[in-house]
From TrEMBL:
GO cellular component: endoplasmic reticulum; extracellular exosome; Golgi membrane
Signal peptide positions on this chain: none
Reaction it catalyzes: N(4)-(alpha-D-Man-(1->2)-alpha-D-Man-(1->2)-alpha-D-Man-(1->3)-[alpha-D-Man-(1->2)-alpha-D-Man-(1->3)-[alpha-D-Man-(1->2)-alpha-D-Man-(1->6)]-alpha-D-Man-(1->6)]-beta-D-Man-(1->4)-beta-D-GlcNAc-(1->4)-beta-D-GlcNAc)-L-asparaginyl-[protein] (N-glucan mannose isomer 9A1,2,3B1,2,3) + 4 H2O = N(4)-(alpha-D-Man-(1->3)-[alpha-D-Man-(1->3)-[alpha-D-Man-(1->6)]-alpha-D-Man-(1->6)]-beta-D-Man-(1->4)-beta-D-GlcNAc-(1->4)-beta-D-GlcNAc)-L-asparaginyl-[protein] (N-glucan mannose isomer 5A1,2) + 4 beta-D-mannose; N(4)-(alpha-D-Man-(1->2)-alpha-D-Man-(1->2)-alpha-D-Man-(1->3)-[alpha-D-Man-(1->3)-[alpha-D-Man-(1->2)-alpha-D-Man-(1->6)]-alpha-D-Man-(1->6)]-beta-D-Man-(1->4)-beta-D-GlcNAc-(1->4)-beta-D-GlcNAc)-L-asparaginyl-[protein] (N-glucan mannose isomer 8A1,2,3B1,3) + 3 H2O = N(4)-(alpha-D-Man-(1->3)-[alpha-D-Man-(1->3)-[alpha-D-Man-(1->6)]-alpha-D-Man-(1->6)]-beta-D-Man-(1->4)-beta-D-GlcNAc-(1->4)-beta-D-GlcNAc)-L-asparaginyl-[protein] (N-glucan mannose isomer 5A1,2) + 3 beta-D-mannose
Residues annotated as transmembrane: 37-57
Annotated Pfam families: Glyco_hydro_47 (PF01532)
Gene: Man1a2
Homology family: Belongs to the glycosyl hydrolase 47 family.
Organism (species): Rhinopomastus cyanomelas (Common scimitarbill)
EC number: 3.2.1.-
Any one GO biological process: carbohydrate metabolic process
Pathway(s) per entry: Protein modification; protein glycosylation
Source domain of life: Eukaryota
Protein name (record): alpha-1,2-Mannosidase
Coiled-coil blocks: 103-152
Length: 643
């Protein structure tokens, strides 16, 4: 329907009526007087209507729902006995006094709203007077507040658990002056490594001591997660370097963030970060380490989402997407990687009361138990999609090593209750002795590598840790062969010492042969490097603890001196490329495990045995001490409230 007032009076269509200023001047000259009069009439009617609306329309605020926190103000005033009702936020009032009171109340509220608006307007005006930089700074402050608040919420304390019996956190200071001096020298080396990392690589994963800048490798993805800080913490603590420890703690508290778009090695992050954080927590009692360890573990869990539950080697900490190393046999996961999670994951379940971690590692164990093992040996590769072995390579060095170590340590860490783990260890070691351990023509006991039914007579520096493992597992061995395993440990220690002693620098090569007239010597150029690894010194320390034969301290001291002489540079410590060369070149990397392991084992070698006694502490594969858990016969999954 068309409004009669808009009908054209002259038979000509008028342009649509607009009250905008430009509508009239254009047509004014052409309009007749009567038309002008009618238009004036319409205009005055419209203005009257507007005034009427302004004065006579009912007050809409009466029907307004007060949902900006005003209900809190209004509702307490509602007296239901006098007929006021609160219907879902609308207020319907009674008559008389109540009406008067209500009007006053509304007036008060209107004033308040007006005052608030004026205040907001004033604030906005003030803001506009500020410079761009000032406004930016204010926004940043607000943002920081929000982040801090989120962090605070994220860091809410975990449920308290009774700490296990923490025995032997003491100075371990030796009485003997000579030994004390040696120990002080190791501490000084630690300080040199730390101070330089602090100065040139702080926050980066590792240090390039010659270029004097941060360094990282693909195991940490492209992250800057301060691997050296986390790995070094417990060594600093044990050595009594408390200022340095506090610096590290502060950095972790403020900066260690795991929501990074970075693809990291599940194994390395577990042994260095989770292991390091847990050890720092147990030693110092500082909650922040426990919280960070649990946060990080949550980020690793998606790696277990594979068809078999055998985790991927790598996981993106942000997306949770996992994959395997391109070089590993047909997309396989690595035995030493998925088999080296047990200790840390059991502790995580212990500390959180959440069996999820425990269940993940027990699932791996169950799966391995069901599988056929060629000659009783565990191959290094297992496909997480099919659940089948990859290439039939077996090693007690790289790719296999810490899997065997963790079977033994799972048993020790459970206060020797986890007999299933002990049995798996005993079975595996029997097969290894039968197929991989041999004596060279010169009488050196070595552990070779099994490749498709053939024994390669080559031993890696990594394999040298096994001397300590045999000694540690001697007590409790099957058929009471404790003496035999202690002896085997001593023989491996001797062979590995020979591999050091037969070099120019008195530092061990990465791999050495027992073949073609060669004994404990590296043959290939790319096996002649020493990258500050700990395994040989680790074995000396275990052998020292179990035998107190002074030769182990002597050998450890030789290694410490060689490291100080050939690997020390003004910017820290570096690996060397050829231990047979009298003028070595550096690889320019200070590995985080040098601070976590090499220097820690050396320090312990020159300390009293009551510092972290082996009856109460089990060292993870990165030398992070975790206490024995007295869990009695309860399995964690059966009783999640075992804490
Ligand atoms: C360490 O990170 C761990 O000991 C791991 O188990 C293998 N070796 C390196 C150091 O050599």
């Amino acid at each position: 329907m068309t409004t009669p007032a808009l009908l054209p009076l002259s038979g000509r269509r008028l342009p649509p009526l607009s009250l905008g200023a430009s509508a009239f001047p254009h047509h004014r000259a052409t309009l007749r007087l009567s038309e002008k009069f009618i238009l004036l009439l319409i205009l005055s009617a419209f203005i009257t209507l507007c005034f009427g609306a302004f004065f006579f329309l009912p007050d809409s605020s009466k029907h307004k729902r007060f949902d900006l926190g005003l209900e809190d103000v209004l509702i307490p005033h509602v007296d239901t006995s006098k007929g006021d009702k609160n219907l879902g936020g609308f207020l319907i009032h009674g008559q008389g006094h109540d009406e008067h009171r209500h009007r006053e109340e509304e007036e008060r509220l209107r004033n308040k709203i007006r005052a608030d608006h004026e205040k907001a307007l004033e604030e906005a005006k003030e803001k506009l007077k500020k410079s761009r930089d000032e406004i930016k700074a204010e926004i940043q402050t607000e943002k920081n507040k929000v982040v801090q608040e989120l962090k605070r919420k994220d860091s809410k304390p975990l449920p308290p658990v009774p700490l296990p019996n923490l025995i032997g956190i003491n100075s371990g200071e030796p009485a003997d002056l000579d030994i004390r001096e040696k120990r002080n020298k190791i501490k000084e080396m630690m300080k040199h490594a730390w101070d330089n990392y602090r100065q040139y690589g702080w926050g980066h994963n590792e240090l390039k001591p010659i270029a004097r800048k941060g360094h990282s490798t693909n195991i940490f993805g492209n992250s800057q997660m301060g691997a050296t800080i986390v790995d070094a913490l417990d060594t600093l603590y044990i050595m009594g370097l408390h200022d340095e420890f506090r610096e590290g703690q502060e950095w972790i508290d403020r900066n260690l963030d795991f929501s990074v778009n970075s693809e990291v090695s599940v194994f390395e992050v577990n042994i260095r970060f989770i292991g390091g954080l847990l050890a720092a927590y147990y030693l110092s009692g500082q909650e922040v380490f426990k919280i960070k360890a649990v946060q990080l573990a949550g980020k690793l869990l998606p790696a277990f989402n594979t068809p078999t539950g055998i985790p991927w080697a790598m996981v993106n900490l942000k997306s949770g997407v996992g994959r395997n190393w391109g070089w590993a046999s047909a997309g396989s996961s690595i035995l030493a990687e998925f088999g080296t999670l047990h200790m840390e994951f059991v502790h995580l379940s212990y500390l959180t009361g959440d069996p999820v971690y425990y269940n993940k590692v027990m699932h791996i164990r169950k799966l391995l138990q069901k599988m056929d093992r060629p000659n009783g040996l565990y191959p290094n590769y297992l496909n997480p999609r099919t659940g089948r072995w990859g290439q039939h390579h077996t090693s007690v060095g790289g790719l296999g090593d810490s899997f065997y170590e963790y079977l033994l340590k799972a048993w020790l860490m459970s206060d020797k209750m986890d007999t299933e783990a002990r049995k798996m260890y005993d079975d595996a070691i029997e097969a290894i002795e039968k197929h991989l351990i041999r004596k060279s023509n010169g009488g050196l006991t070595f552990i070779g590598e099994w490749k498709n039914g053939h024994l390669e007579r080559k031993m890696g520096h990594l394999t040298c840790f096994a001397g300590g493992m045999f000694a540690l597992g001697a007590d409790g061995s099957r058929d009471d062969k404790a003496g035999h395993y202690l002896q085997l440990g001593a023989e491996i220690a001797h062979t590995c010492h020979e591999s050091y002693d037969r070099t120019t620098l008195k530092l061990g090569p990465e791999a050495f042969k027992f073949d073609g007239g060669v004994e404990a010597v590296a043959v290939r150029q790319n096996e002649k490097y020493y990258i500050l690894r700990p395994e040989v010194i680790e074995t000396y320390w275990y052998m020292w603890r179990f035998t107190h034969d002074p030769k182990y301290r002597q050998w450890g001291w030789e290694a410490a001196q060689a490291i100080d002489k050939y690997c020390r540079v003004s910017g820290g410590f570096s690996g060397v490329k050829d231990v047979y060369s009298s003028s070595p070149t550096y690889d320019d990397v200070q590995q985080s495990f040098f601070l976590a392991e090499t220097l820690k084992y050396l320090y312990l070698l020159f300390s009293n045995d009551d510092l972290l006694p082996l009856d109460n502490w089990v060292f993870n594969t990165e030398a992070h001490p975790l206490p024995v858990l007295h869990l009695a016969n309860t399995t964690l999954s059966e009783n999640p409230s075992y804490r």
